[in-house]
Amino acid sequence: MRILVVSDIHANLAALDAVLSAAGSLDAVWSLGDSVGYGPQPSECLARLQQAGAVMIAGNHERAATGAISTDDFNPDAATSAQWTKKTLSPAEHGFLDALPEVSLQPDCTLVHGTLRDPIWEYMHSYEAASAHLRLQESPLGFFGHTHIPTLVTEDHRLPRGCELYRLQEGERIDVPADSKIVVNPGSVGQPRDGDPRSSCALYDTNDNAITLHRLEYDIGATQKLMEEAKLPRWLIERLAAGR
Ligand code: ZN
Q1: Which of 49, 77, 97, 202 is 20 to 30 A from 26 (CA-CA)?
Q2: Containing domain of residue 135, as a range?
Q3: How many Å lie between the centroid of ligand 1 and the Cα of residue 80?
Q4: How far is ligand 1, taken at its centre, from the CA of residue 24, in Å?
């Protein structure tokens, strides 16, 4: 199976379409949460994911977009965009988002937005969070999002902290190990934050048992124009071009 793994699309349809069209023929699409929020086309992105038959889970922005969680812990720009998203989505779309699970178990693979310890909120930035996640992950492979940084976490019991974290570069290939666990962040499709404004995603080939990281250019200006028309916060518009 050839599986496209995407995360943090953030209602950026131009970016999602660039990724989907470059991926070619696929057997599955897995989306790791934050499909909405920040960007100008939440309904269109949900429709596109549904058309693609994507497996979807919830992130903090799905929950904020329906009012299921409060935006008190969001920064002011994120809260403003969450309120806009909530108004823009239909009752049926709210119902769809509310029904999304926080964790999805696929054959030999676990999908979560943050970490298995705290699926909606926790960032897998630290060794402590990554070790706690790996202890809870029963499958050999996992995928996560939320940080917007393409990352590989490998279990390694020889290290006192129990794991190692690596930034992933374009074109990098990860062979899924037979005797230890890994968890991979494919980066963000719609709001990259590693200094590279190109969309980030991963292809998981189950025949090869390998994952490759891809970066793709998309029409950033088109998304920024729609955000201006929607009067979304200035910083959210500018950060797309900076990849921050
Ligand atoms: Zn996000």
Answers
A1: 97
A2: 2-242
A3: 15
A4: 25
- Cα 205 to ligand 1 centre (Å): 25
SS3 232: coil
Reported as a single tens digit per residue, the pLDDT across 193-214 is 999 999 999 999 999 999 999 9
Query: How many structural domains does the chain have?
Result: 1
Distance 158 CA to ligand 1 centre (A): 32
Report d(CA 64, CA 136) in Å as an integer: 26
Per-residue pLDDT for 62 more than 90? yes
Per-residue pLDDT at 72: 87
pLDDT of residue 163 exceeding 90, the answer is: yes
The reported pLDDT for the residue numbered 73 is 85
**CATH number for 75:** 3.60.21.10
pLDDT at site 88: 97
Distance 189 CA to ligand 1 centre (A): 10
